[in-house]
Amino acid sequence: MQQPNKTAEWEQLLKLAAQPRDLRQLFSQQPSRGTDYSLQAGDIFLDYSKNLIDDEVLQALFGLARAQNLEARRDAMFAGEHINATEDRSVLHVALRDQSNQSKNVDGSDVHQQVRTVLDQMTDFSTAIRDKSWTGYTGKPIKNVVNIGIGGSDLGPVMASEALKFYSQRDIHIDFISNIDATQFAEVTRNLDPAETLFIIASKTFTTDETMTNARSARQWTLDSLQDDAAIAKHFVAVSTNAEEVSKFGIDTANMFEFWDWVGGRYSMTSAIGLAVMISIGPDNFHELLKGFYAMDEHFRTASLEQNQPVLLALLGIWYTNFNGAQTEAILPYDQYLHRLPAYLQQASMESNGKRVDLQGNPVSYSTAPVLWGEPGTNGQHAFYQLIHQGTQLIPCDFIGFVNSLNPVGEHHPKLTANLFAQTEALAFGKTADEVRAEGVGEVLVNHKVFTGNKPSNTILAEKLTPNVLGQLIALYEHKIFAQGVIWNINSFDQWGVELGKVLAKTIYSELSDSTKQPAHDSSTNNLIARYQKQHR
Ligand code: F6P
């Protein structure tokens, strides 16, 4: 494995990036560009024609992927090799949704059997909550399910339960507590009846401070009302890899849904971490979600690099990040149900590929993951699109939309979709000074009204937002992120960068709560601690 900037393909891409490319010209030279540069995989249609690329660039990008052994690394992941080298672990989220029914032996265990057992347990439990045969301690059915978790133990379930709300059982209210700020706990529990509330404590490690602090508050809140330790068994379940800590917390391991260290936190939404989602949309829809993931997994595993959607997205991202100076990437879903998708993908991409050393531990001398951000359209159009159209930064955008709305009301959906298509057109082709003048605009305003265009975007379109389509969409991005990590020669599956803050927070916490302690940090941090100690009541 080598750093990508040592390859001949990298050199070639640098040269290609120095040549200007103009989307107006590229489209007029190649009238079929819109179809030539689009690719259907399963239910997902990807139009990548509005990118600053041509065949030469694409060939060089595919060459770079091959030089970095992408196919072999992909096979190694699917085979369960310990590609998470710094933690000596397999990376097998793909096994969570494998529909092939074949056993898969990894490190001495049949992971498919393990997955099936937990899926059956989740199915039984979700059904019991949904049909009200599982009741709370006082015999009342569960009306509220609150998932307590953070990061990968929160963002996936939040995103998917919002994305699939249309399919939810409406008499069960699903909510989430992640922040250690008690405000979220207070506001979520404010109007809930403990006798009708189930908490899912979701934590891979079961040691994360935010989650354990919230879980303890939830236990106290429940006991304050129900007044009996025996109530915990009816109102708390755990999702974790750590049976010992679950049991120490006081949750019977019979009420624990297991997953395994080969599932990374940010790749865990198809594990038992999806329990809240399954309760909300039901086991059948959850299985459809898994099938969608599997369809995209298979596409990624078997399609040639040239016909591979995740690979294309990965390479386009690398083209902009490493050769065209882009520092961010926008995810713009034109569907309100996907309003948490950018936040979910933020963790998936930035925690995976926000790395400064390569697999061998050597500092890299090229950019890795860009800052990922976004909001649903059309809201974003009235907020930050100004900068994308006329600002000074290059921001590649992914527009995501659906041909049919789940809520077809009047003219809303054609208007929404028209906005999506219009934005990609405006970004790509802009408006020249002559076109502005032709509209009768006075000279003094011409430059203000020019759109330079040549702003790249992908359009990702599916017929309808279903559980299956959501699975395909998320797996598309998961594998994009994987492919980028391989090309950058980094470990996408560890996250050492979150540790230092956690350790320092422990020390500072002990200082904040004891004003006799003399903090020994820098003058800024000491000052902030002293101010807190003085003003806190
Ligand atoms: O903040 C880092 C992190 O470890 C994430 O990778 C993870 O998703 C999150 O914390 C939650 O971890 P856990 O599921 O172990 O509580």
Please describe what this structure looks like.
The chain is α/β, with parallel strands linked by helices. Helices cover 47% and strands 11% of the residues. It is built from 22 helices and 13 strands. The strands form 3 sheets. The chain has a 6-stranded mixed beta sheet, sandwiched between helices. Strands 6-5-7-8-9 form a 5-stranded parallel beta sheet, with helices on both faces. The longest helix is centred in the last third of the chain and has 22 residues. It is globular and about 75 Å long. The protein starts with 7 loop residues before the first helix and ends with a helix. Bound molecules: 6-O-phosphono-beta-D-fructofuranose. The site of 6-O-phosphono-beta-D-fructofuranose has 14 residues, from loops.
Key features of this structure:
5-stranded parallel sheet, 537 residues, 47% helix, binds 6-O-phosphono-beta-D-fructofuranose, alpha/beta
Number of strands: 13
- Number of alpha- plus pi-helical segments: 22
Give the N-terminus to C-terminus distance in angstroms.
56 Å
Largest sheet: 6 strands, mixed
How helical, in percent, are the residues?
40-55%
Summarize the structure.
The chain has 537 residues and is of the alpha/beta class. The chain is 47% helix and 11% strand. The site of 6-O-phosphono-beta-D-fructofuranose has 14 residues, from loops.
